[in-house]
Amino acid sequence: MGALITIFRIPELRKKVLFTLGLLVLYRLGSFITIPGVNPIAVAAARPPGTSFLDVVNVFSGGALFKLSIFSLGIMPYISASIIMNLLTVVIPPLARLQREGEEGRKKINQYTRYGTIVLCAVQASFILLWALDSNNAEMVAMESSTWFFIIGLVAITGGTMLLMWMGEQITERGIGNGVSLIIFAGIIAQLPRMLYRMLQDENVAFFEVIILVILFMLLIAATVVLSTGVRKVPLQYGKKMQGRRMVQARSQSLPFKLNSAGVMPIIFASSLILFPQTIVGMLGERAGSSEVWGHLQAWLNPFAPSFYQRLPYFTIYTVLIVFFAYFYTAIQINPQELAENLKKYGGFVPGIRPGTHTREYIEGVLNRITLPGAIFLALLALAPYFIINLLDFGQNQNIQGLAYTFGGTSLLIIVGVALDTLKQVESQLLMRNYEGFMKKGRIKGR
User: Fold this and answer.
1) At a CB cut-off of 8 Å and minimum separation 6, what does 64 contact?
2) What is the pTM of this model?
3) What digits encode the pLDDT tens for the residues 216-236?
4) How far apart are the C-alpha atoms of 85 and 112, rounded to whole Å?
5) Mind listing the domains of the chain with CATH numbers?
């Protein structure tokens, strides 16, 4: 509490915190503003059939997607465009050269990312508006002209996402923490009070079940902290250098590699890919349900099948996809060849390892060894909500299911990661002004 009080005693830090909170409040207010021409009462009672990756988007948008809000897509199109641009900088040499040009190159790549965000917003908003204009959801649209509704809705949703992108950049520059991450964090956290209220009001939920859920979520949070902060430090040594008239030995350093270098991206990629067939079935309706192939595929990818053996294909495929994308994204984020060349250029080396090719092979070996347990740990964290529901026989309770899905796996990893990152920045601001941080003993580790 002393650290929290100190935050508001420092004028500069108080201004940053209040600015961040103010923009997050505006974001939450905007998520309740529907696009023009929508019947809010009918929208509140409707949602897409079946389970799809739209549920994932709805969680990240703070529940704004199924409200047909101006912030329906949240900040996810910008994140998707950023991921695509990162992938393109690896496979397209001109973009890779542009990224190495410094600040001007990064500005150009950010400009391309914004253009890509507009394109993704237009495509994703079109699917949402077509769903609203479907004959089964005719009561959701209050505007007579479907063409004008489509055009106005497309502009409103795309403009809302671009506004969120600007708000995120303003938080990063003038506030505390990463703006884009905090917007997602606020959207997920905002759903917690409503879900807890529904679960506590449910007469079918016993008190001991609530206690069990609280204990399990505390354990999941502890495991997520370990996954987010765990690092493998590779020792480095630099050659002697002249300091004044004396030759001195440079100080030993270390090269840290995260246990989970890919972050939450493997879960997002795997979830989108594995839920894609179910989304197709939901969109095609009875035509897809009559197909034997689609029926078998949907049965194999059902995490709530009656028996464990019927659920096993889903768990196996999901785990394999997460491990694959963890290796894939780590290979994109960390380039051992470039690291080895930079160490050799500046006179650094790993003790006992020759510079150049041997250093590259050593770094590759370290990354391969730490990525596998990190990926398996990530897969277990992603599957934790399903295990909690199936093992504790909560499958019939919709309130517990919603709470487990919203605050388990992907969402929990984002919440803990953003919280640690923001607390680290606040603590660094306090320590810079000779104040104690949040911890009297020790410091918050970086992600």
Assistant:
1) 31, 32, 58, 71, 72, 74, 187
2) 0.76
3) 888 888 888 888 888 888 888
4) 8
5) 1-190 (1.10.3370.10)
